[in-house]
Amino acid sequence: MSTDGTVNTATAPGARRPDPEPVAAAEPRTVRPEQRAGQRRRRRRSRLANTLALLFCAVMAFPVYWMLLTALRPANEIRRNPPRLWPSGLTLENFRRAMESETFWSSVRASALVGVGTVLVSLVIGVLAAYAVARYAFLGRRVFVLAILSIQMIPLAGLIIPLYLLLSDAGLTDSLTGVVLTYLVFMLPFTVWLLRGFVVAVPAELEEAAMVDGCTRAGAFRRVLLPLLAPGLVATSVYSLVQAWNEYVLAYVLLSSDEKQTVSIWLVSFQTTFGTDYGGLMAGATLTALPVVVFFLIVQRRVANGLAAGAVKG
After folding, report:
1. Is the pLDDT of residue 283 over 60?
2. Residue 295: CB partners within 8 Å, gap ≥ 6?
């Protein structure tokens, strides 16, 4: 009811409300010819980029495919001319011969000891050195960082003879310990440089807060910093393991006993004076790459996160 006593029929109970005014339909958006041309160009560029990416992946993956194919081929098809992209039959005979060779398991054991030893020692020393470089201001810190980078530029061939003479004087030739120490010369600089970026990315206030709550410097390092460095530790361990597992030149020069030779040297045993056993060689190469591939698949997510985080600051 309005102020003058009349009843407003629009709001009275039971009264029929007036129909709402029809809403005008939105006019279709007109796309200009130049916009259509731009969309077509973007789609063409996207298709071209995807095609090039697929071709690049195919080229990079073809050697791996051919290695697996040769490892599974029967002996009478390996030297077939012209070769087939897919054999008429598959066999595991090459893998059986490779695994039943005399020095296969001893080579796997030697490579595992060298790889694990190199990874553990490089991580322990590298994380402490990276923490010191990132957190403490000491005389010669910039020179130390520059020396780390300079070591990476020294070619491996220029250090083989000096390293061999040093290990010979120390009685560490033909020793897995000597090989691990030699690998550390090349692994530690990269480990320190990579982990330094991770330590810098962690705010120092977190450690200071832990020390205010009663932690010591070592306790704050162990309880606060190390868990945050997990992605960097995983990424560094993968790099060190791959390098130590696949290295050939230093292991060939330093190791002479058959039972101490690594898998990279064991692969050379398929090349004899009578020719090359390509089936056994490719099967051995597949078995050699398998542990590293499995390890990488297990930790690939942490590796991707670690490399992305380590690239933020450094």
Report:
1. yes
2. 238, 241
